[in-house]
Amino acid sequence: MSQSPQREEALVQRWVRPEIGQMSAYAIPDERYAIKLDAMENPYSWPEAMVQAWLQRLQGVGVNRYPDPAARELTASLRQQLELPSAMGLILGNGSDELIQLLALTLGGAGRVVLAPEPGFVMYRMTAQFAAMAYVAVPLTTGFELDLDAMLAAIAHHQPALIYLAYPNNPTGNLFAEEEMEAILAAAPGWVVVDEAYHPFAGRSWVKRLGEFPNLLLLRTLSKMGLAGLRLGMLAGPQALVAEVNKVRLPYNINTLTQESALFALEHQAEFDRQTALIREQRQWLATALHQLPGVTPYPSAANFILLRMAPGQADMVAEGLKRAGTLIKNLSPVGGLLANCLRITVGTPEENSTLMTQLRALVQG
Ligand SMILES: *Cc1c(COP(=O)(O)O)cnc(C)c1O
To answer: Of 267, 299, 332, which marks where a domain is finished?
Structure first.
């Protein structure tokens, strides 16, 4: 068959949904760096004995059969770990990203609105676009707090089906004021998702308040705790809504290896608690060190990353300089707006953080 790129392009132009054609795919850097501090991963691997026990456990798992479609054992174990009120439903996703997408599929369609503060997590906007929903972004204040008046006005005007509040927020790292979140929950005509992706580092949660607000949903993930490669997220909320979201979930979305590995990991929660405690300590160390750099303003963080504002014109130079030195961080300056001149650094191991600081010092002091 002869190749016909024009014909292929014409088919794409004619049939791909215009709103998808206008999007770009979520960009993930593919080069390798000696130090990787861009994606909020836990830098620690497992003790050798734990790796051996895990491999042994997986030996008993057959991948010729489909997984348990409802992941019953894992769901029960997660309910306990979450201390979920028994009246609440729980649904699992292939990462919490998938649950964000399932919510859009469940609630979406023309005329439906997703609303979130900005800057915020990119997936809220992308999945709204997938589901032909309008996306309304309400700017945070310059201190990255909720602008409550603006939020309430936007809620009244747009009547969103879905509001996202990340707690703590990505990429700013702060926890929004609880009273302001309560006001949003009370004013929202639709669902409000409190996204606790960074729960292991935050020390605060809305889980006990499920049921107090009929429209409150809670999103969690095992990714940031140290299982990003497993892809496991959870959505908790009223049974009636969870049952509807469950209809758009593909039957075997949590694969057998993930189900067994997550169960294993939950039995070894103490190891993850140890690792996340180290990360919280290092967050403090890194914040203190960053404060001492000239022209650098680190923002307070309740997550496993720190957002910094650089002196004007320095963010791109520093991000590129770090790359040349073998360290990858996230340059948010190109996003502009409140993120102009901002960089986001994931907290790494003590060695990684100390190397990063040496590299940063050399760059900002020229
Ligand atoms: C990382 C992140 C997620 C997605 O995590 P998964 O790996 O898909 O579970 C969701 N929400 C926020 C705010 C995040 O930062």
So the answer is: 267
Nearest C-alpha to atom 5 of ligand 1 is from which residue?
A: 96
* Centroid of ligand 1 to alpha carbon of 96 (angstroms): 6
Which residue from 98, 99, 121 has its CB within 8 A of the most atoms of ligand 1, so it is best to mutate?
121
Which domain does 257 fall in, by range? 64-267
Structural domains counted in the chain: 2
Number of residues written out for the chain = 366
Residues 135 and 211 in one domain: yes
Tell me if 6 is assigned to some domain. Answer: no
Q: How far is CA 358 from CA 254, 289, 341, 343, in A?
A: 42, 10, 20, 17
> pLDDT tens digits, residue range 17-54?
998 999 988 888 778 999 999 999 999 999 999 999 99
Q: Which residues line ligand 1 (CB under 6 A)?
A: 40, 95-97, 121, 166, 170, 195, 197, 221, 223, 228, 233
Contact assessment for residue 344 and residue 332, using Cβ atoms and an 8 Å cutoff = yes
The rounded Å distance from CA 254 to ligand 1 centre is 16
pLDDT at 2: 59
pLDDT tens profile 147-169:
999 999 999 999 999 999 999 99
Place of tokens 């392009």: 9
**Integer angstrom CA distances of residue 232 from 78, 139, 235, 289, 325:** 11, 30, 10, 34, 33
Contact 99, 223 (CB under 8 A): no
Place of tokens 């049921």: 211
Q: How far is the CA of 146 from the centre of ligand 1 (A)?
A: 20
Q: What is the distance in A from the centroid of ligand 1 to the CA of 1?
A: 44
Answer whether 348's CB lies under 8 Å from 282's CB.
yes
**Could you read off the pLDDT of 271-298 as tens digits, one per residue?**
999 999 999 999 999 999 999 999 999 9
278, 301, 354, 219: which is closest to 43 by C-alpha? 278
Residue 227 sits at the vertex; the CA angle it makes with 321 and 207, to the nearest 5 degrees, is 110
Burial of 130 (0-12, 13-18, 19+ CB in 10 A): middle
